[in-house]
# Entry
Amino acid sequence: MKKSSIIAAAIAALALASCSDKAQINGKIEGAAEQQIIVKQLNMNVYNALDTIKTKNDGSFRYNVQVAAGQPEFIYLFHGDTRIAGLLLKKGDKVSVKADTLGNYSVEGSEESVKLAEVDKAYTKFINDLVASSDDNAAMSQVYLKHYRASVKHLIENPYSLTTIPVLYQRISEESPVFAYTKDALFFKNAADSLKKVYPESRYVKALDKEAKRKIQALELENVINAAPESKFPDIVMSDMNGEKKALASVEAKVIIVHFWDASDAVQKMLNIEELLPLYNDYHKKGLEIYSVCLTPDKALWGSVVSSQKLPWINVNDGLGAASPAVVNYNVASLPNSIMIVDGELNTKEIKGVAGLRKELDRILRR
# Structure
């Protein structure tokens, strides 16, 4: 063989090896002739822009994505701010995508991408159905249960598919995941255990495994709490300022003041500084704790107020506002509203004003 032929063969082999670490996307976007399409890669819970490409005059384009062996990538196409297609690409995949600028799309050439398209379509329908039934709580519940069961079915039928990951992380709103039950931790664990066998190096799987372990710990904690003697007051479990779940039942103090308030109300903000803070400073070391439940849905506002006022007690918020289960459990009809728990029992004694509260605390917490 001539030397030139050997060199050409070597170059071709190198080119083939290089291409083998890629996946190819051939697409056509209806209504997007000679327009920019943004290619983004999912990096855990955020999108990282990889490139911006321009379609031809018929809306078609071609793009290659770097994909390592054993580490499939979630790739999404955006037209402006609209996500128009989602792909789950393995090394060597060659996929064809047909989409429009509204987010309707189909894909061929990748089994995982086809499954992801089905997941996206089902999720979009679920959200639309929720919005359509928003005036009927019973109808909304039925829509949710139907989607939840369909999602569980997908998890069971596709244990080795990475499409289980976006299913597990679907959300109704920022504060309301579809898989919101503590026992759903088992779905996370089962998915992580299965996927680790197939994609041990995938960063998506590693992140899922970490989240599964966190949820399993929460489930174990709940089991411990449930096995404990029955509480004589309704428990509240909400996220604190660090995003950690904090149960009212886990607070160890002789006296607990459960304080419900609204961070958007100036008068209630001043109450923190003028009344609760002096009370806390005077009685905390003697056995008083404050479990402050903010019913402001805007958690960013709540966090800002708590931080700026440097409130030292337990501060929690579930982001549900008046829809929070705690409102019903404690019959909170107006704000601010406080109740007192003494030695693990609700104190039903009528207390008038801060002076009356201090007198009661002096009696209960006397040395």
